[in-house]
From TrEMBL:
Coiled coil: none annotated. It comes from the Bacteria. One of its GO terms (molecular function) is transferase activity. Residues 15-136 form the Glycosyltransferase 2-like domain. This is Glycosyl transferase family 2. It comes from Sporomusa malonica.
Amino acid sequence: MSEFDKESHSPITISLCMIVKNEEATIERCLRSIEQSVDEIIIVDTGSTDKTKELVRQFTNNIYDFEWIDDFSAARNYAFSKATQEYILWLDADDVIFDQDRQKLLALKATLSREVEVITMLYYLSFDPNGNVAYQIRRERLVKREKNYQWIGAVHEFLDAKGTQLDTGIAVAHKPLKHDSDRNLKIYERRQLKGEEFSPRDLYYYANELREHNLYNRAIECYQKFLETKQGAPEEKIAACASLADCYYLLHDEENELKYIYQSFQYSNPRSEFCCRLGFNHLNNNRIRQAIFWYTLATHLKTANSSWGLVNNQCETWLPHLQLCVCYSRLGDYKLAYEHNEKAAKFIPDNPMVHHNRKLLQSKLNNEPSESD
């Protein structure tokens, strides 16, 4: 093997770059989960007043201060500028790499071709009570340093990384212990007071912040402005339709709720989440056969694992089966109801609803009186 071949097959080196502020509750957990997988740890602190820096010093002396200027991209780009290794990995302080994903990352590190410039990973956003992933997206997570990729956007920033790309099944898990619920909204409102013109992306994420603060009418206005631009990625348009449907549902406006559920079909084939929404609407209105149609369709749909959009794993696994159990029970078809309950149980075996349904349906199938009779 030539020297060139040896070099091309040697493990890549990785700098971990993070921005932090008052993260004493989670930073140690995060760094312990990744320290053996990277060659350098860069921490940029934007004004911690707790023990964050003290905890970080167990792992690295590469700690830099950065004055906070209401701009996440500025802080992340500064962190990236301090990296010295071949590739840069970024995480947030409340992220964790599970053992199976750490092993996958180490395997990738040992075998990755240096022709690859952008590596994407799954991002597990939340988990159900059974530990199953409830929501996930895909993010650019590991990039070649020499490409000098830049972060863009003051808040809800994104990494503008274009190049030879590899999509992996490696996952980063978001495991927050707290949430600074007002921070991002305040940044948007300060920008708005300065008279800044929001990009379509800004409109979309500002709308998300408004919705999370229960400011539904203002959120609706922003989502509609975003869709009216006809810009943005299809996945953002689909997510905007889902959020608009949520807002109108909470405002008891069924007509507009349904309008945006159906509008989502303009941007992609029907997703299981929207089929479940339609099933729920029909079920609430006692249109059982229509509900069965939409819930059944949901069981046959699966978002591609390479999807960049928000994936609702519940609607792609147990939820439509549990709802079909309800539907068939109402029709008196206890055999089909039991079958769907057992299909749901494969995903959520310890769920109390599954156990309740099983006991009730077994008594129905055996013609035995149940507690609810």
